[in-house]
Amino acid sequence: MKKVEAIIRHFKLEDVKNALTERGVHGMTICEVRGFGRQKGHTEMYRGTEYAVDFVPKVKIEVVCSDKNLALVIDTIMRAAQTGQIGDGKIFVADLKDVVRIRTGETGEDAL
User: Fold this and answer.
1) Which residues contact 40 (CB under 8 A, 6 or more apart)?
2) Nearest to residue 34, comparing CAs of 56, 51, 52, 53?
3) What is the pLDDT along the chain (112 residues), one digit of tens a residue?
Protein backbone atom coordinates (compact mmCIF):
# COMPACT_ATOMS: atom_id res chain seq x y z
CA MET A 1 0.00 0.00 0.00
CA LYS A 2 1.09 3.56 -0.67
CA LYS A 3 0.29 6.96 0.77
CA VAL A 4 0.24 9.70 -1.85
CA GLU A 5 0.55 13.30 -0.64
CA ALA A 6 0.02 16.01 -3.22
CA ILE A 7 0.57 19.72 -2.64
CA ILE A 8 -1.51 21.64 -5.19
CA ARG A 9 -3.01 25.05 -5.90
CA HIS A 10 -6.26 25.93 -4.10
CA PHE A 11 -8.30 26.44 -7.25
CA LYS A 12 -7.35 22.98 -8.57
CA LEU A 13 -8.82 21.09 -5.60
CA GLU A 14 -12.27 20.49 -7.14
CA ASP A 15 -10.72 19.37 -10.44
CA VAL A 16 -8.48 16.87 -8.65
CA LYS A 17 -11.29 15.62 -6.41
CA ASN A 18 -13.64 15.10 -9.35
CA ALA A 19 -10.96 13.40 -11.45
CA LEU A 20 -10.04 10.99 -8.65
CA THR A 21 -13.71 10.21 -7.97
CA GLU A 22 -14.32 9.49 -11.66
CA ARG A 23 -11.38 7.07 -11.61
CA GLY A 24 -12.86 5.15 -8.67
CA VAL A 25 -10.67 6.52 -5.89
CA HIS A 26 -12.82 6.49 -2.77
CA GLY A 27 -11.63 8.70 0.03
CA MET A 28 -9.07 11.40 0.52
CA THR A 29 -8.02 13.82 3.21
CA ILE A 30 -7.29 17.47 2.53
CA CYS A 31 -5.88 20.29 4.58
CA GLU A 32 -4.83 23.82 3.87
CA VAL A 33 -1.09 24.34 4.14
CA ARG A 34 1.42 27.10 3.45
CA GLY A 35 4.92 26.80 2.12
CA PHE A 36 7.31 27.63 -0.68
CA GLY A 37 9.49 25.89 -3.19
CA ARG A 38 11.48 27.33 -6.04
CA GLN A 39 9.14 30.30 -6.34
CA LYS A 40 10.15 31.42 -2.80
CA GLY A 41 6.92 33.33 -2.24
CA HIS A 42 6.00 36.60 -3.91
CA THR A 43 5.31 40.26 -3.19
CA GLU A 44 1.92 41.96 -3.00
CA MET A 45 0.83 45.57 -2.83
CA TYR A 46 -1.53 46.66 -0.06
CA ARG A 47 -2.51 50.32 0.32
CA GLY A 48 0.55 51.44 -1.58
CA THR A 49 3.03 49.38 0.44
CA GLU A 50 4.78 46.29 -0.88
CA TYR A 51 4.71 43.20 1.34
CA ALA A 52 6.62 39.95 0.98
CA VAL A 53 4.47 36.82 1.12
CA ASP A 54 7.02 34.18 2.08
CA PHE A 55 4.64 31.23 2.46
CA VAL A 56 2.21 30.59 -0.37
CA PRO A 57 -1.16 29.02 0.51
CA LYS A 58 -1.68 25.55 -0.97
CA VAL A 59 -3.83 22.47 -0.40
CA LYS A 60 -2.45 19.09 0.63
CA ILE A 61 -4.34 16.00 -0.53
CA GLU A 62 -3.62 12.62 1.04
CA VAL A 63 -4.76 9.42 -0.68
CA VAL A 64 -4.01 5.87 0.41
CA CYS A 65 -4.10 3.30 -2.38
CA SER A 66 -3.01 -0.19 -3.30
CA ASP A 67 0.31 -0.66 -5.08
CA LYS A 68 -1.51 -1.56 -8.31
CA ASN A 69 -3.48 1.75 -8.29
CA LEU A 70 -0.48 3.97 -7.56
CA ALA A 71 0.25 4.95 -11.17
CA LEU A 72 -3.44 5.71 -11.76
CA VAL A 73 -3.63 7.99 -8.71
CA ILE A 74 -0.42 9.87 -9.55
CA ASP A 75 -1.36 10.30 -13.22
CA THR A 76 -4.86 11.51 -12.32
CA ILE A 77 -3.56 14.10 -9.84
CA MET A 78 -0.90 15.33 -12.26
CA ARG A 79 -3.34 15.78 -15.15
CA ALA A 80 -5.98 17.53 -13.03
CA ALA A 81 -3.64 19.81 -11.06
CA GLN A 82 -1.24 20.88 -13.80
CA THR A 83 -1.30 24.45 -15.13
CA GLY A 84 2.20 24.46 -16.58
CA GLN A 85 3.30 27.33 -14.33
CA ILE A 86 5.82 27.42 -11.49
CA GLY A 87 4.05 26.53 -8.26
CA ASP A 88 1.86 23.68 -9.54
CA GLY A 89 3.05 21.61 -6.58
CA LYS A 90 4.60 18.26 -5.80
CA ILE A 91 3.55 14.66 -5.23
CA PHE A 92 5.17 12.54 -2.53
CA VAL A 93 4.78 8.76 -2.27
CA ALA A 94 5.47 6.73 0.88
CA ASP A 95 5.13 3.05 1.73
CA LEU A 96 2.50 2.13 4.31
CA LYS A 97 3.12 -0.79 6.60
CA ASP A 98 -0.51 -1.29 7.61
CA VAL A 99 -3.96 0.31 7.71
CA VAL A 100 -6.66 -0.45 10.28
CA ARG A 101 -10.33 0.43 9.91
CA ILE A 102 -11.37 1.49 13.42
CA ARG A 103 -15.05 0.52 13.10
CA THR A 104 -14.52 -3.10 11.99
CA GLY A 105 -10.91 -3.89 12.82
CA GLU A 106 -10.15 -4.79 9.19
CA THR A 107 -6.51 -4.42 8.25
CA GLY A 108 -4.44 -4.01 5.09
CA GLU A 109 -6.13 -3.41 1.77
CA ASP A 110 -9.45 -4.65 3.21
CA ALA A 111 -9.45 -1.51 5.36
CA LEU A 112 -9.24 0.76 2.33
Assistant:
1) 54
2) 56
3) 999 999 999 999 999 999 999 999 989 999 999 887 776 666 666 777 777 777 888 999 999 999 999 999 999 999 999 999 888 999 999 999 999 999 999 999 888 8
At 67, which CATH number?
A: 3.30.70.120
Roughly what angle, to the nearest 10 degrees, separates helices 70-81 and 13-22? Answer: 140
8 A C-beta contact, residue 19 and residue 76: yes
Q: Alpha-carbon distance 53 to 77, whole Å?
A: 26
93: amino acid identity, one letter: V
Total domains in the chain come to 1
Q: Are 34 and 57 in contact (CB under 8 A)?
A: yes
| 78: phi then psi, degrees, rounded to nearest 5 | -60, -45
